[in-house]
């Protein structure tokens, strides 16, 4: 298991478009990818679960990866979040 705290930047937080990008990225991971926010544990493979977290800009979250490639998957997901959840295909 690997985890890292991240500050969500951007005024809008994890609204539909960045939540979709995050869910698609989590689907590519071999690890289970979760966000810990308040008392919630959010499965990142589900856009609806991400949206239900109501995570706004300025909120601090913890990303946790559990599985055989946890360190690699954590780096992939946290890098994506820290870059503002822009679509990697568009870069």
Describe the protein's architecture and organization:
By secondary structure, the chain is α+β, with helices and mostly antiparallel strands. It has a single domain, classed as Histidine-containing Protein, Chain: A, CATH 3.30.1340.10. The chain has 3 helices and 4 strands. It has helices at residues 16-27, 47-52, 70-82; strands spanning 2-7, 32-37, 40-43, 60-66. Strands 1-4-2-3 form a 4-stranded antiparallel beta sheet. The chain is globular and about 35 Å long. The model has no long low-confidence stretch (mean pLDDT 91).
Short summary of the structure?
By secondary structure, the chain is α+β, with helices and mostly antiparallel strands. It has 3 helices and 4 strands, in the order E-H-E-E-H-E-H.
The secondary-structure class comes to: alpha+beta
What's the overall geometry?
Answer: globular
Q: Mean pLDDT, rounded to whole units?
A: 91
Order of strands in the sheet with most strands: 1-4-2-3
Strand element count: 4
Please give a handful of descriptors for the protein shown.
91 residues; alpha+beta; Histidine-containing Protein, Chain: A; 4-stranded antiparallel beta sheet; 4 strands; 34% helix; 25% strand
């Amino acid at each position: 298991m690997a985890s890292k705290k991240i500050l969500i930047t951007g005024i809008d937080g994890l609204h539909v478009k960045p939540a979709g990008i995050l869910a698609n990225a989590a689907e590519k991971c071999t690890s289970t990818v979760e966000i810990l926010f308040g008392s919630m544990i959010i499965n990142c493979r589900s856009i609806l679960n991400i949206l239900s977290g109501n995570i706004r800009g300025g909120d601090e979250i913890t990303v946790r990866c559990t599985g055989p490639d946890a360190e690699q998957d954590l780096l992939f997901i946290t890098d994506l979040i820290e870059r503002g959840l822009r679509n990697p295909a568009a870069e």
